[in-house]
Amino acid sequence: MKDIDIRRFLGKLNPFAAKIKMRGELIIELRGADGSLKDKQIIRNLVTAQGDIFAGAAMYTSAYSGWGMKLGTASTAASESGAGSFIAVGDYVSGSAQALDDSTPKTGGDGIVQFRRLWAAGEGTDATINRVAIVDNTSDAGEADSTGTYSIAVFSAQIAKGASDTLTVTWNVTYEGA
């Protein structure tokens, strides 16, 4: 029987060592108090450099426990690192740090992992919402850097969420072979 290099073997099991890529699509829906659709956007996201590390760890643990989403007002372009890779203290929408919906993350089929958050009336209310992030916490504050951010996206148009509106973000992350 041939000896196996355990590290090399385990590296093959790790999709990130095999250069699997992630891409994401968000569906954002803003609804009025009567349930009518006020705004709908479909956009692409960016997985941060830290997000690659989180995703690799999540393959082997229940890493998403305690995770949530946060809203921000800055329109800084999304980036893998630096100012565009997290929602900072200055642009955090107060009250928007909320846990992922109970049913997520879940499989969306064919290599898709789906994250979802519904902000109810009174949660995450702001007239200038420009972006959203999946984060590893639900602390009611902005982030100091990108170490807690899995993924971030900038909306194609600013969202004005009134106190009686609801906002739903459905985030589909697709894992693709290299």
Structural write-up:
- With 178 residues, the protein is mainly β.
- It has one domain.
- The protein is built from two helices and ten strands, in the order H-E-E-E-H-E-E-E-E-E-E-E.
- It has helices at residues 6-13, 49-58, and strands at 21-31, 37-44, 46-47, 68-72, 98-99, 106-109, 112-119, 126-135, 149-161, 166-176.
- The strands form two sheets. It has a five-stranded antiparallel β-sheet, with no helix packed on it. A five-stranded antiparallel β-sheet has the order 3-9-8-4-5.
- Strand 6 (106-109) and strand 7 (112-119) form a beta hairpin.
- The protein is globular and about 40 Å long.
- The model is unreliable at 1-13 (pLDDT under 50).
Please name the defining characteristics of this protein.
single chain; 178 residues; mainly beta; 10 strands; 42% strand
Give the helices and strands, then pairings.
Blueprint: H1 6-13, E1 21-31, E2 37-44, E3 46-47, H2 49-58, E4 68-72, E5 98-99, E6 106-109, E7 112-119, E8 126-135, E9 149-161, E10 166-176
Give the number of domains. Answer: 1
Q: What is the chain-wise order of helices and strands? A: HEEEHEEEEEEE
Structural class: mainly beta
Question: How many distinct helices?
Answer: 2
Average of the residue pLDDT scores? 81
Order of strands in the sheet with the most strands? 2-1-10-7-6
How far apart, in Å, are the first and last alpha carbons?
31 Å
Helix content: 10-25%
Number of strands: 10
State which percent range the strand residues make up: 35-45%
Please state the overall shape, judged from the principal axes of the Cα atoms. Answer: globular
What does the main sheet amount to?
A: 5 strands, antiparallel
What is the CA-atom radius of gyration, in angstroms?
A: 17 Å
Q: List the uncertain runs.
A: 1-13
